[in-house]
Design a protein that fits this description.
mainly alpha; about 0% strand
């Protein structure tokens, strides 16, 4: 399958938005990050808006999107509901923060922020589960979006903490980033191994050999495509882009910043570089997931 860039950017920015709000919610529950609340909410709102605009670019006739809302359990409906709930929680957090005498949102707002912040990437991942695409039809896809949200959200929150001078939030944001990076490494490696061994899912029982509407197109090399991640055409993008640059480098930068107890501008520099690397890795893995997504024609 060819990469759908509007959807790649949609899931990417939704993970940034959800992760940033979730980490801010965690800080709120622990009574930290007062100085960075406005900035965190602004980043979450901006990235949600960018992701929302990007997904419309996927539709040739975007006005027909409303036809999909007739089915309450359809993926596009769940994503829409998730985005609306996310925006409502953002506004609620802001209003309760402004209403508070000490300028800190109540802890229950923090809990809501965590639930919604991690819930939106999970719902988005669930909307892509479909039997016609075995490479996507796994809980690992949902797990990836959630841990990716924690990783990027933690790094984004660390940048915000460094810029706004929220000294009490910096260590926790770094630790959240580090935890997200380690979890993402585990999920991506397991996911790659699962896809690598999935050629057998395209069994002879479903007779998937070629598209009968394109008789001059050769049969799909199922094993070659799904096996291209670890040692094939996608190996460089996977090992160098998704793993080395996208996970190992930002985890190392995060650990270095935590060990050196970096603060202020220096912390923002470390976290900013790590976030840029993480973004490259996230895009690489999303593109790979499209490339190895062989549809089961009989069920598509």
């Amino acid at each position: 399958m060819h990469p759908e860039w509007p959807l790649i950017l949609f899931t990417f920015f939704l993970c940034v938005a959800g992760g940033t709000l979730a980490v801010q919610g965690l800080l709120c529950v622990l009574g930290k990050g007062k100085k960075m609340q406005i900035a965190s909410l602004a980043v979450s709102l901006a990235t949600l808006a960018v992701g929302g605009i990007a997904v419309f670019m996927h539709l040739q006739h975007w006005e027909r999107i409303f036809n999909g809302f007739g089915h309450i359990t359809s993926g596009i409906t769940l994503e829409f509901i998730g985005c609306i709930v996310f925006a409502v929680v953002l506004v609620l957090y802001f209003l309760m923060m402004r209403r508070s005498e000490d300028g800190m949102a109540p802890k229950w707002c923090g809990v809501l922020a965590i639930v919604v912040g991690l819930g939106l990437p999970a719902v988005t991942g669930d909307s892509y589960l479909m039997e016609a695409l075995p490479s996507w039809d796994t809980p690992l896809l949902i797990a990836y979006y959630v841990v990716n949200a924690v990783f990027m959200g933690g790094l984004t929150a660390t940048v915000v903490a460094g810029v706004t001078g929220a000294d009490d939030a910096q260590e926790l944001a770094l630790k959240a980033s580090l935890a997200g990076g380690v979890l993402q490494l585990a999920v991506v490696l397991v996911y790659a191994l699962v896809i690598n061994g999935s050629a057998g899912l395209y069994s002879a029982e479903i007779q998937y050999y070629f598209d009968p509407t394109l008789p001059d197109v050769a049969m799909v090399d199922r094993a070659g495509i799904v096996g291209s991640i670890l040692a094939g055409s996608q190996a460089v993008a996977f090992w160098l882009g998704a793993i080395a640059v996208g996970i190992a480098a930002p985890v190392a930068l995060t650990w270095l910043a935590l060990r050196q107890k970096a603060a202020g501008t220096k912390l923002a520099g470390y976290a900013g570089a790590a976030l840029a690397c993480c973004a490259v890795g996230g895009i690489c893995w999303r593109v790979i997931l499209y490339v190895v997504a062989i549809s089961v024609f009989a069920l598509y």
